[in-house]
Specification:
signal, 3 domains, ABC transporter substrate-binding protein, D-Maltodextrin-Binding Protein, domain 2, alpha/beta, 10-stranded mixed beta sheet, about 425 residues, 8-stranded mixed beta sheet, 11 helices, elongated
Length: about 425
């Protein structure tokens, strides 16, 4: 990767893969501090202060996550790599997962500007906690983002940030703490009053109720987030194709629930996960295969029409049949027209009528992947601080007793009335059994 010039390069290299993080093993986080590139913005004592501040934000946010912060030498290499005080620019936008902002300050010849940074009078640079974007770092980055958003809602964070604000105020009289960052250029604008909120209709998550209003656990989450930022409004519904079109062409489009993919990173800012779904091959009395590649290509695979899994199955050499609905797929499975359904546990549960079939006999034969559906915000000309405002609000809602009681009641209803396999973690619905 090309080295950065003329802006901060306080580098933190992570000496464990994301798998260690997920399995809660003790992760060694190796820190290399290099703030000399900020000499045109901060004096040496102030650079030391922001260095320590950035380190403490990370350390405190991850205090319950089995991590150990250690110094490292310049020669050490590890993946994924995490950076503190990395300036977000148009040139490096696609290279990183932008976890959380730290500082905003004037940009110029030596410090590049951050697009859509929320200041109407002057351009500013925003420094971030960021993680290299690659195939091994996604889950790690997602969890770090969640933990830092949670921490930034805490009394401890505000105490820490206000102490640093007091130190910096001697040199920066306009300093403000807002949206989880310290702005050295005064007030920043994160106006969310013109959000356009639109959802894809999904049973139990966001479905039409009385008078056309959306109901369901995802709609409840979004309504709570909008209330948190003092911007309550009606949620519109539309087919996915229209949602995608609007998000690509307009700013401030708040949508849910959108499956996160690498291709969609150019279109959406990702606010918070709503649900996760395990995708794979499901059959009756079929052996379990550890890898998707191990499944015999003689298996007849059924998918939905115009579903991405149809092409995946074809590309993997299976004989594929497509059906109009999950109900038809389940019927085809029991009629021995196909050997497996390429779908998700949630789809199988929705499509199988227990009064007609022995639904419990359909089991996972091979896992393909896990997809995550998000509350997301259109990227086009949208202020990055509106994203932060929404992320902090979502984290606060998910930690609230009110939302968790609502989620628990919803979960009980889904189990009792629909028999859908699922569990919840950190305010996210996982559509499969935990065991």
């Amino acid at each position: 990767m090309e080295t950065r010039k003329g802006f901060p390069s306080l580098i933190v290299l992570i000496a464990c893969l994301s798998a260690l993080w997920i399995n809660s093993a003790r992760a060694q986080v190796l820190i290399q501090s290099d703030t000399h590139d900020l000499q045109n913005v901060f004096s040496q004592p102030l650079r030391e202060s922001i260095d320590e501040y950035a380190r403490m934000v990370l350390e405190n946010a991850l205090s319950s996550e089995q991590t150990e912060l250690l110094p490292m030498s310049d020669e050490e290499q590890a993946s994924p790599r995490l950076y503190l005080n990395l300036i977000r620019t148009a040139d490096n936008e696609r290279e990183y997962y932008w976890i959380s902002p730290l500082f905003a300050f004037e940009c110029g010849e030596t410090v590049p500007c951050t697009p859509n940074a929320g200041n109407q009078l002057k351009e500013v640079a925003v420094s971030y906690i960021a993680i290299d974007k690659n195939s091994t770092s996604f889950q790690f980055a997602e969890r770090v983002s969640e933990k830092i958003s949670e921490y930034k809602n805490s009394e401890g964070f505000h105490l820490l940030a206000n102490n640093v604000k007091s130190t910096l105020s001697v040199s920066f009289s306009e300093i403000e703490l807002a949206y989880g960052l310290l702005s050295l250029v005064g007030q920043l604008d994160a106006d969310a009053s013109n959000l356009w909120v639109i959802a894809d209709v999904v049973p139990l998550f966001s479905e039409k109720g009385e008078r056309g209003k959306l109901k369901g656990i995802a709609a409840d989450l979004v309504n709570s987030v909008l209330k948190e930022i003092s911007s309550p409004q009606d949620i519109l519904s539309a087919p996915w194709k229209r949602i995608a079109k609007e998000a690509m062409s307009k700013s401030n489009v708040l949508v849910f629930a959108v499956i996160r993919t690498e291709e969609r990173d150019d279109v959406f800012h990702w606010i918070t996960p709503v649900s996760r779904n395990l995708h794979g091959l499901f059959g009756i009395n079929k052996p379990h295969f550890e890898s998707f590649d191990d499944v015999p290509r003689t298996f007849r695979v059924g998918t939905l029409l115009e579903d991405y899994r149809y092409n995946v199955a074809l590309e993997n050499g299976f004989k594929v049949s497509a059906y109009d609905s999950w109900n038809e797929l389940v019927e085809a499975l029991f009629n021995n027209e196909i050997d497996t359904i390429f779908g998700s546990q949630g789809a199988i549960d929705f499509g199988c009528n227990p009064n007609e079939f022995k639904c419990e006999t359909i089991t996972l034969s091979s896992k393909y992947d896990i997809s995550t559906a998000y509350l997301a915000l259109s990227k086009k000309d949208t202020c990055v601080l509106v994203l932060e405002k929404l992320k902090l609000a979502a984290a606060d809602v998910k930690m609230s007793d009110e939302f968790n009681e609502r989620l628990s009641s919803w979960s009980d209803m889904v189990s009792q009335e629909y028999g859908i396999a699922h569990h919840t973690e950190h305010g996210v619905v996982h559509l499969w059994n935990p065991n």
